[in-house]
Design goal:
There is one protein chain. By secondary structure, this protein is of the alpha+beta class. About 30% of the residues lie in helices and about 25% in strands. β12 and β13 form a beta hairpin. α1 runs parallel beside α3. The relative contact order is 0.10.
Length: about 280
């Protein structure tokens, strides 16, 4: 982006920051306070804020496609690919075919040239599927091997598909049980601390629960962890993890699919990790 006049100075964007130079062309360390309210400076700062919001939204959308394993039309991916924010969020994600087998790591996309992938042999291939599938990592076979290969390739996924924490439902689980208590009982000195942690982690809080909605096999399921809804300065602790259907009915553990299980456990573990460990040590 070129330089724009701002009083006796010129301003521009460089690396997502507003930079300034004087009339002699010497670049300054910061924007002088006397031109902070100049329309050009204000406009560039607003543009920076918009670009940051856009980048976060692109990443959130791609993560939602991944978490819900939503097939994305090929035309959508090729349309957004030229946008650096979209490209950054999509680049290096594992793409699978209609059979669920890994096709490769996404490196390029164009309506005329298809998707450019690095396959598991390290070769560049091109495919033109009707739908682009970006699976949740819990659905990927040989995840450990894929992670090792990604490290060899120097893959850096902004959406953290391969290195997202996953939980698999353990064998021998009571399929008729309706809750998991592995991460229950995490103590917090004040309810507002646990509410704040849930919000910071990106989870909504509703009716005293931290909730994580998941769409799996076309069915909406919501993982819930009780965190309290009383006095915000009162002590509280994490409750058991449950899953409910669209009508609010709590489901048995045997009805929970792999993605809903993994995402629910991920939420419960993340909330529990913020507990007051000092209180636990004193109690012990």
């Amino acid at each position: 982006m070129g330089w724009v006049s701002a009083g006796d100075y010129e301003v521009a964007l460089d690396g997502g920051k507003v930079v300034c130079r004087n009339a002699a062309g010497r670049r300054l360390k910061s924007v002088p306070p006397k031109i902070a309210d100049d329309p050009a400076v204000v406009g560039l700062k607003q543009l920076v804020e918009w670009l940051e919001r856009h980048e976060r939204q692109c990443l959130a959308d791609v993560e939602r496609w991944m978490v819900r394993s939503l097939p994305v039309p090929f035309a959508v991916v090729t349309r957004v690919w030229p946008d650096p924010a979209w490209q950054s969020a999509l680049r290096d994600l594992v793409v699978t075919g209609a059979d669920g087998q890994v096709a490769g790591f996404l490196r390029d996309a164009g309506s005329d040239r298809g998707l450019g992938l690095v396959d598991l042999d390290g070769d560049t291939v091109r495919i033109t599927p009707d739908l682009v599938r970006i699976p949740h990592p819990v659905l990927l076979e040989d995840l450990a091997e894929l992670r090792e290969f990604a490290v060899e390739l120097g893959v850096e996924q902004r959406a953290r598909q391969l290195f997202r924490e996953v939980w698999h439902r353990p064998a021998g689980l009571d399929a008729d049980a309706r809750q998991v208590e592995e991460y229950a009982g995490g103590s917090f000195k004040e309810l507002r601390f646990l509410h704040g942690r849930a919000t910071q982690l990106g989870y909504r809080v509703r009716g005293g629960h931290a909730v994580c909605p998941v769409l799996e096999d076309g069915r909406g399921i919501e993982a819930r962890v009780w965190i309290g809804d009383y006095e915000s300065y009162a002590e509280t602790e994490t409750g058991p993890l449950v899953w409910a259907d669209a009508d609010g009915r709590v489901l048995s553990l045997g009805q929970i699919g792999p993605v809903a299980w993994s995402e629910g456990m991920r939420m419960a573990a993340a909330l529990y990790a913020g507990r007051d460990v000092e209180d636990e040590e004193r109690a012990a």
